[in-house]
Amino acid sequence: MENVTTARACAQTTEEPSWLPGYRPQRINAGIWRVIRPFVIGCAERLALDESPNGLRTARVLALLAEWCVSEGLDVDLEIVLDPATVERFVAVGLKGNRSQSTYRAVLRRVGPLLTRHAGWEPTPATYGRLGTALPYSPSELRALKAAAGSQPTRARRRAARAILALGAGAGLDGRWVAQITPSEVIADRNGVAIQVGAPEARLVPVLAEWHAEVLDVTATAGTAFLVGGTSTSRNRASALVSYLVVGHGQPKFSMSRLRSTWLVRHLELGTRLPELAHAAGLADTRVLSDLLTHVPAMETADALRALQGIR
Predict the structure, then answer these.
(1) In sequence order, what are the residues at sequence separation of 6 or more whose Cβ sits closer than 8 angstroms to the Cβ of residue 309?
(2) Which strands form 186-189's sheet, in the order they lie side by side?
């Protein structure tokens, strides 16, 4: 499977325009800018933006889009941020009431096809019902991430990487929820292990049995701090942590969105009913799951026939 092009891969030009090193939109705080800067600067280089009003506006619109994606728990990944569905959702929701909505949409529709390879830019409807769906990790990629989590350079990063993996692949939590979990939200009883998740979409999420031990272990070492992010209350701490995690050359990067997709596919493999899965995932409906069906291994013919007859 070809790896999704990341935001960092955007920076491939030979010379950086002189105005870019010090560029930072005034309204974006330093913490979030540190997370999204590689995406914005990389795209500006690829587009050869100059310091003209048009160039500055394009850079600013890309920065606002990336900032919104962080707030929505999406990875700052080129193919996700500039997916047509993400762009339309940003314009409709992130820019609601902004008089420049149509201008910003036009800018992003112009640069999206120039910067992406897989996003599928075609003539599109004015609105979309959902964001693009991240690719799930393969079993071998997940094993590589587990190895990378255990070899991070500091104890804090090792615990953060393990927690992000366990909460993502074990309970489907992405950037909207993963940094909100403290030990008091992890519930272990005779029914198994579950996580009490807050807004948006408060609910109790059972953890996949194969991740019970890891979730309990990272919980035991957290003390009174968050499982991800320690004592920090910054709203972008999960995305910032992910950007600092180290992986080997040619290995998959940590992605909260991809971990969530991996969790969804695992449930589809196990035959979890869609209504219960949608509730546990905090989904309003099951349409997003259709994007993942091609990643679910086919059943043996005999097993499929029994299932279709209602025979267990």
Answers:
(1) none
(2) 186-189, 192-197, 203-206
89: its two tokens: 């959702």
Rounded-to-integer distance, Cα 62 and Cα 111, Å: 9
**Backbone dihedral region for residue 245 (phi beyond 0: left; psi -120 to 50: alpha; all else: beta):** beta
C-alpha–C-alpha distance, residues 162 and 168, integer Å = 10
Among 86-90, 140-144, 233-237, which stretch is predicted with the lowest mean pLDDT? 233-237
**What DSSP element (H or E) covers 240?**
helix 237-244
Q: Are 170 and 211 in contact (CB under 8 A)?
A: yes
Q: Angle at which helices 155-171 and 256-270 pack, to 10 degrees?
A: 40
**Rounded to a whole number, what is the largest CA-CA distance in the chain?**
68
CA distance 145 to 143: 5
> What is the SS3 assignment for 191?
coil
Residues 6+ apart with CB under 8 A from 30: 24
Task: Specify the DSSP element, H or E, that contains 64.
Answer: helix 53-71
Coil/strand/helix, residue 238: helix
What mean pLDDT comes out for the span 143-149?
94
From the number of C-beta atoms within 10 Å of its C-beta (0-12, 13-18, 19+), residue 17 rates as: middle
pLDDT at 234: 66
Beta partners for 186? 195
Q: Which amino acid is at 71?
A: S
Quote the distance between the C-alpha of residue 308 and its chain's center: 34
**Calpha distance 130→152 (Å, rounded):** 34
Q: Which structure tokens are listed for 120?
A: 């599928």
Provide the 10 A C-beta neighbour count for residue 282. Answer: 18
Triad 18, 20, 24: Cα angle to 5°: 145
How distant, in Å, are the alpha carbons of 107, 142, 169, 205 from that of 212? 46, 16, 11, 12
Percent of the chain with pLDDT over 70: 89
What is the spatial distance between Cα 261 and Cα 1, in angstroms, rounded to a whole number?
15
